[in-house]
Specification:
5 helices; about 150 residues; 2 domains; mainly alpha
Length: about 150
């Protein structure tokens, strides 16, 4: 709802192309310019509850969880790269080292850790516990050196 007070002040804000497109679409739906729509949205947000606007991303209470998930994503990318190298070596007939089972066990442990963190995130967001998926099925895993000698 607009007031009779003239809008004589401006605020410059940077947004992503996705948000900009959404603002353009919403403004068009309401017969407004993007600036007019953004001004109305800001006024509505201030009237409704100014506490929903965070001063910085660091003030977001989910920020530690996001940071943890980003770290886990990096670790999983590294593990995936290592597994790709092991798979390639296996397909080329290169014998795996004796610690291959230890590596696979570490991958299983990492998977359980990731699921634990994801469960915590789910619990934090929804307020109730999530069901954990089963651990990695290794029945189709690459053969170990012992498997190759018996084949």
């Amino acid at each position: 709802m607009r007031t009779r007070e003239a809008r004589s002040k401006s605020i410059a804000a940077r947004v992503t192309p996705t948000v900009f497109a959404a603002v353009q679409d919403a403004a068009e739906e309401h017969g407004l310019t993007p600036s007019g729509y953004a001004g109305d949205a800001i006024a509505a947000a201030v009237r409704a509850d100014a506490s929903v606007v965070h001063a910085s991303p660091d003030a977001d209470p989910l920020r530690p969880l996001v940071t943890t998930l980003n770290g886990l994503a990096t670790q999983l990318a590294r593990i995936g790269n290592n597994l790709n190298q092991v798979t390639r070596a296996t397909h080329l007939g290169t014998a795996l080292t004796a610690d291959a089972e230890e590596v696979l066990a570490a991958v299983r442990d990492s998977q359980l850790h990731v699921h634990g963190v994801l469960d915590s995130v789910h619990d934090e967001i929804t307020g109730h516990a999530a069901e954990s998926p089963d651990p990695i099925d290794t029945s189709s895993a690459a053969p170990t050196p012992a498997d190759r000698t018996t084949a």
